[in-house]
Amino acid sequence: MAVPADKTKTILHVIDALNIGGAQELLALMAEKTPKSAYHSLVCVLQPDTTILSRIESRGVPVFCLNRFRPSIISPADLFSYFFNNVKEVVSICRRYRVDVVHCHLSDADFVGVLAARLYRSGRVVSTLHYPEFLPERKSGDIRNFLRIAATWMIYHLADAVIAVSDDVAKKLRSVFCLNPDRIKTVVNGIDVEKIHNAQPGSGLWASVGAMPGQRVVASVGRLMPPKGHRYLIEALPYLSRQFGNLKMLLAGDGDLKYALEQLSLNLHVQGVISFLGSRNDIPDILAISEVFVLPSLSEGTSLALLEAMAASKPIVATDIPGNRDILKHQHNCLLVPPGSPEKLAEAIAFLLNHPRIAAAYAKNAYLDVLRQFNIDHTISQLMAIWG
Fold this sequence. Notes:
Distance between the termini: 12 Å
Shape: globular
Mean pLDDT: 94
Largest sheet: 7 strands, parallel
């Protein structure tokens, strides 16, 4: 990958926020793994949440924080000011550092970064659609959905390439935004497999997650948002806790549904079985003490949490949906169950807990599969071909 120093290009990644999430994790890995002999990487974050900022800066990648809260569309003047000032500052960064490539991540960054890149006349403009659900949770006839699709159609047609993280996401780009197939590039997410596989959790981890050695620990990682399907996992707990008196469910992640999910656990009398861990930066350690990993999502692109569980050599229960089927194979490295079914989730989790030899075989296959197909170095090579 090495190129002469005088051929080094500058790439600016633009992202909405640096909270803990799949897109942010991928960006942090890009900052760490992109060869500095080929690209000088910069990051611009629009909003004030900068939880993982120090992780990116520790890799020698400068981060520009614009620190603007996003106004609601019901305040159009404030929203226009938010986008106008962000675009102006991104153009200024591009000029100051002679940026060659602008790569946008998430919806606000798409609008800001693509427009700024075109005003600056950047050599290459790229956007990544990280999730198959690109519209907020609204009623189907909401005028805001039409406006979002129309605006996104314009932005994507201004980009040189739009990256889909799965075949399902690529299909939606073609059908919803009518993009030329040549403009769509499918690049499946990758992770640092060996770093996760070799995690060594400290002795204090058990107490920090509200569990004890000897408990049957099941873990799930993801934003607490409707598409992630956590309510069905919680609804599976009464059945599981009757079978396994020492069960502990670790739910890592934060989001809009946290309070509602906590209330659901109270209503089902399983609050003692589940630990809501919030956002964590020690996911490999949490996976290391878990027996089974569960992904109950209703929709997915390419789940980094799922790839991390595979790298940690964990048997997996996941929903039988397009994004997961691109990665997993039923009764090879996982058990796939219908989405939205607490009963099937509970049945599959119980099977793996009761059949350790089968679970161990699935776990081994999962590790070998992720090592072969989803290593971050392969992802970076594909991205570099797109960046040019």
